[in-house]
Write a structure and sequence with these properties.
Distance between the termini: 40 Å
Order of helices and strands: HHHHHH
Length: about 160
C-alpha cells in the first residue's frame, strides 16, 4: 500500500500551510491581544458551551438540564458561526473555497474524534463523568488561551518572528 501524497494532496497541504502561516501568525495574535481582556467572542461562546455541557452532564434534573442544552446549543452555534465567519473573511479570495473546506473538515473531524474519546472513556468511567471531563478539558483549554492572550496584551507588541 502506498501512503505517499499525490500532487493534489501536496498542493492542498501547501495551501493550508501557507494560509495558516499567513493568517494565524503573529499578526493574528496581536489582533486578538488588542482586546483589553484578551478574550474574543468566539472564546466566550466556547467557554459557555463547555461550562453548560459540564453542568448538563452532572445535572440530574430535567428542568435544569433542558435549559442548559438550549444555552449550550446557542453558545456552540455562536462559536461556530464566529469562527466560520473569521475564516471566510481572512481566507485569500482565490483560495477561499479550499481554506473553508479544510477548516470545515478539520472542525468536524475534531467533533468525531471527541465523540470517540467520550464514548470510549465513557465505557470505563461512565458516560456522564466522561462528558463532564471532556467539557471541563475544553473549558480549561479556552481559559489557558484566554490567560495567554491577556499576558500577551499586557506585554505589548510581539517581537517580529524571523
Amino acid at each position: 500500500m502506498d501512503f505517499t501524497y499525490d500532487e493534489e494532496q501536496l498542493a492542498l497541504q501547501e495551501v493550508a500551510r501557507t494560509a495558516l502561516e499567513r493568517e494565524c501568525g503573529p499578526d493574528l495574535l496581536r489582533q486578538l491581544a488588542d482586546d483589553p481582556t484578551g478574550i474574543t467572542p468566539a472564546l466566550w461562546s466556547t467557554l459557555v458551551y463547555g461550562a453548560s455541557t459540564v453542568f448538563f452532564a452532572v445535572s440530574h434534573d430535567y428542568l435544569v438540564a433542558a435549559p442548559l442544552l438550549v444555552i449550550g446549543g446557542i453558545a456552540n452555534l455562536a462559536a461556530l458561526s464566529i469562527t466560520q465567519t473569521v475564516v471566510q473573511l481572512r481566507a485569500p479570495r482565490e483560495k477561499r473555497g479550499q481554506v473553508i473546506g479544510l477548516y470545515s473538515t478539520g472542525a468536524n473531524g475534531m467533533r468525531i474524534g471527541s465523540g470517540f474519546t467520550v464514548g470510549l472513556f465513557g465505557v470505563v468511567v461512565g458516560l456522564r463523568p466522561a462528558l463532564a471531563l471532556s467539557a471541563a478539558a475544553l473549558c480549561a483549554c479556552v481559559l489557558l488561551l484566554a490567560v495567554y492572550l491577556a499576558v500577551v496584551a499586557r506585554r505589548g507588541p510581539l517581537a517580529e518572528a524571523t
